[in-house]
Write a structure and sequence with these properties.
Strand order of the largest sheet of chain A: 4-5-10-6-7
Oligomer: heterodimer
Order of helices and strands of chain A: EHEHEEEHHHHHHEEEEEEEEEHHH
CATH class of the largest domain in chain B: Alpha Beta
Distance between the termini of chain A: 61 Å
Number of strands of chain A: 14
Order of helices and strands of chain B: EEHEEEHHHH
Helix content of chain A: 25-40%
Strand content of chain A: 15-25%
Strand content of chain B: 15-25%
Number of domains of chain B: 2
CATH topology of the largest domain in chain B: Ubiquitin-like (UB roll)
Number of helices of chain A: 11
Radius of gyration of chain B: 15 Å
Structural class of chain B: alpha+beta
Helix content of chain B: 25-40%
Structural class of chain A: alpha+beta
CATH architecture of the largest domain in chain B: Roll
CATH superfamily of the largest domain in chain B: Beta-grasp domain
């Protein structure tokens, strides 16, 4: 079966666009392989043709682009972890990248792969949601940018057209007073797929009044989600102990987890509230 | 598809299906059976090899993505009849039990020490976090890596 699979390995972006347009969705884009090879090895998902992006240097690298950090779609987790730019502006993306698998996976897995694979458990996705990333998408028809928060339309569904390719992820540089928090709950620190992952970006003034509050979760809904009601509850308010308890209760109604091999819906709901409670307590306790 | 690659310092031109796993090419085509298959899904690290100096799971690398690459397997760690310091330490400090995880552990440890010659105990744990030992002989493995690093 493996011997009948064909692979196209374009050497330029233009060649890639041509192939995507020609095949109209009948070719599977292959980045680092850490998800696709698993499904291929298990014969869960076998495609007759793959488009191998790996040699495309144009899709790699981390740079400053205006008031944002631009991360090429084929940039690996290891490259993200080691990047001074990402360390400076998006500490939570470094933490998320460190929580993906272990060294062997981090050396191959890519940020673009995590985004396009569209798993509700993708470790970096809640981070991109709270950082309000923008996605740079290209095709033979040109390039466009869309907000990350509009990329998913349902379980493993995205707005990418058949001839389109994710080129890069743009992270707007944060405000100097933004506080970033990342928490992944899994069976163990390395290798485990998350039961729940939560991340937030917050800004509070000296009196502990909330100026900015963005909260996102993974593994508790068909896609990565923001928690808009809980964000609204907190925004503009004094971060009191009572308010934190209210947020903890409210967020448990905003997540929609399922029971599966990794955890139960009840556990995920409870933990979703608890980790938000802890994060907000930590924010409140900061000097 | 003809794929050029270098394994343990030797150059090859291989004729293989492009989606064939690097693991299978090593074991079946090159008869380098030191690299083991455990889970086949990137969880256990048994099939670890160095690809351009970085540890990867060879069960997750299609051979088309190793085109022109330099690969080191466990067979390539010893040089001129002398074991790699990590291999020697695994023997001296009991780092190997049943042996299935050992090639992957040696590769992960080598990658770690190449980058960080004097890792702390936590860094050793982190560097081998992608490698499972079903005998649960982790303490001896950590000790062997620490000794190989001269700690």
């Amino acid at each position: 079966m493996i011997s009948t699979i064909t692979v196209q390995t374009p050497r330029t972006l233009t060649e890639t666009y041509d192939l995507l347009q020609k095949h109209q969705g009948r070719i599977k884009v292959l980045a680092g392989g850490t998800d696709l090879m698993v499904t291929l090895n298990a014969r869960v998902e076998v495609h007759s043709a793959y488009l191998n992006l790996w040699p495309l240097r144009e899709l790699r690298g981390i740079s400053e682009a205006g008031n944002a950090v631009r991360i090429g779609a084929l940039t690996t987790y290891t490259q993200i972890i080691r990047s001074p730019l990402v360390q400076q502006h998006a500490r939570i993306l470094v933490e998320a990248a460190k929580s993906v698998g272990a060294a062997q996976i981090q050396n191959r897995g890519t940020l673009g792969g995590n985004v396009v694979n569209a798993s509700p458990a993708g470790d970096t996705l809640p981070v991109l949601a709270v950082l309000e990333a923008e996605l740079e998408i290209g095709s033979i028809r040109g390039t466009r940018k869309i907000p990350f928060n509009q990329f998913y339309t349902g379980y493993r569904k995205t707005v990418l057209a058949a001839d389109e390719l994710l080129l890069a992820i743009h992270l707007p540089k944060p405000h100097a007073n933004d506080w970033q928090y990342f928490r992944k709950v899994g069976t163990r620190q390395a290798q485990a797929i998350s039961k729940v992952v939560m991340t937030l970006v917050a800004r509070v003034d000296a009196a502990k009044q909330v100026e900015v509050m963005r909260i996102a979760y993974g593994s508790v809904a068909p896609t990565v989600i923001r928690a808009p009601q809980t964000e609204s509850l907190l925004n503009g308010q004094l971060l009191s102990k009572k308010l934190i308890e209210q947020a903890q209760q409210l967020v448990m109604t905003e997540v929609h987890p399922i029971s599966d091999v990794r955890s139960t819906a009840d556990y995920r709901r409870l933990v979703s509230g608890n980790i938000l409670f802890r994060a907000l307590q930590e924010l409140r306790a900061r000097g | 598809m003809t794929i050029p690659l270098e394994v343990n310092g030797k150059s090859y031109e291989l004729d293989a299906p492009p989606m064939k796993r690097l693991l299978d090419v090593l074991r079946e085509d090159l008869h380098l059976t030191g690299t083991k298959e455990g889970c086949g899904e990137g969880e256990c690290g048994s099939c670890s090899v160095l690809l351009e100096g970085e540890a990867v799971n060879s069960c997750l690398v299609p051979i088309c993505q190793a085109e022109g690459a330099s690969i080191i397997t466990v067979e390539g760690l010893a040089r001129e009849g002398r074991l790699h310091p990590v291999q020697q330490a695994f023997i001296e400090y009991g780092g190997a039990q049943c042996g299935i995880c050992t090639p992957g552990m040696l590769i992960a440890a080598t990658a770690l020490l190449n980058e960080n010659p004097h890792p702390s105990r936590d860094e050793i744990k982190e560097g081998t976090a992608g490698n499972l030992c079903r005998c649960t002989g982790y303490m001896k493995i950590f000790e062997a890596i620490a000794k190989a690093a001269g700690n």
